[in-house]
Every structure is written in C-alpha cells, then in structure tokens.
Design goal:
It holds the Pfam family FMN_bind_2. By secondary structure, the protein is α+β, with helices and mostly antiparallel strands. Helices cover 31% and strands 35% of the residues. The protein has a single domain, classed as Pnp Oxidase, Chain A (Roll).
Length: 199
C-alpha cells in the first residue's frame, strides 16, 4: 500500500468491484520451503471472503490451509511522463491501481470447490458474446478427473489495503492533461479511472 493517504480508499464496494472486475490475482505465503506465489482466478463471495483454486501439485497447495496469506489484485497501470505536466521540471512517475488482501485461508471441500468453479465459469462466460459454454458439455468422467487435480481455498479477508494512485496530488487541469496523455499512449482504462476516481 502506498504511504500517501491521498492514494487510499475506504470504499469497500469499490474494492470488491475491483476484485470482481479483474478476477485474477497473486497469492503469496511463507512456506517451510521459502516464500511462494501462485497466480489464480479469484471469486469474491460477497461477504468479505474470496475463493481461488490451485493445482494439486502447486508449491503452495500443501501449506495454505489454516495459514495467513496475502492476495494482490492489480488493476491498470502506466508510466506518467513529465511532458504531461504544466511544469516539466520534475520526474516521471507511475499511476496504478492495486489491492492487497490479507487473511486466513481454509481448504474447501469438494462441493465447495465445485460451486466455486461453476461461479467462475458463469461470471466469465457471461462476459463473452454469443452462446455460453456450460460445464455440462464436459463428459462427467473427464470433469471428475480434472476436478481431482485442483484444490479449492477460501480466504476470509481481514485487511483491505488499496492503492489508487491516480495523480490525486495534482490540480484538476493537470490530472486531465495526464489522463489525455494516457489515452493517447494506449492506457484508456487508467485514464478513465483518473477521471472518475481521482478527482
């Protein structure tokens, strides 16, 4: 989390929307083998927890149950050039949106894992145009075999640490100039967030 309080938010609905929109993150934990990270799809439960799954052979799988972990969700980010400032006698920076979630992890049972997968499929298939794919299209024997290769987890989020670094420390006209520069440089999502959240 960035130390500048201008770049923080207490808007829990916004933070949960970020997790839902991005839908992917990194799980970090200390293990007896050293620190490890896994990249995972995320499913917010709507009640302060997030779910994810790992391959059974992942270096974190056997250590996570009952432990505290850190999940990081990254939103858009981009380089900010001093050429977009009124006074160019400064240095470059980086604008970004990121969220750190810390909490206790529990291993899910098979039914919970299956529910997680169906929620993940429904959310992501619903975002695509055309006919949606259904898990029912996978032969049951294949589904069971693939399901046996992964382990589900749920983390009760005890700490939400966001950074929404969107040039809030700059005057409105300069923020718009930076947003326009980001648009032109191919970072429209970050520019839009600057216009809607950074004001």
């Amino acid at each position: 989390m960035h130390p500048n309080p201008l770049f923080r938010s207490e808007d829990r609905a916004l933070l949960e929307a970020l997790v839902d929109e991005v839908g992917f993150g990194m799980v970090f934990a200390a293990t007896p083998d050293g620190p490890r990270v896994a990249h995972v799809p995320l499913v917010p439960t709507g009640d302060g927890a997030i779910q994810f799954h790992l391959a059974r052979g992942n270096a974190l799988t056997r250590w996570l149950g009952g432990e505290t972990a850190l999940v990081v969700v990254n939103g858009p980010d981009a380089y900010v050039s001093p050429r977009w400032y009124a006074d160019r006698a400064t240095v470059p920076t980086w604008n970004y949106v990121a969220l750190e979630l810390e909490g206790r992890v529990r291993r899910m049972d098979a039914d919970g894992l299956e529910d997680q997968l169906h929620a993940l499929i429904a959310r992501n298939e619903g975002r695509l145009a055309g006919d949606q794919w259904s898990a029912n299209e996978t032969p049951p024997d294949m589904w069971r075999k693939l399901l046996g290769g992964i382990v589900g987890f749920e983390m009760e989020v005890l700490a939400w640490r966001p950074t929404l670094k969107l040039s809030q420390n700059k005057p409105a006209a300069e923020r718009e100039s930076i947003a326009a520069g980001l648009d032109a440089a191919g970072s429209p999502a970050l520019a839009q967030l600057m216009r809607t959240l950074g004001a």
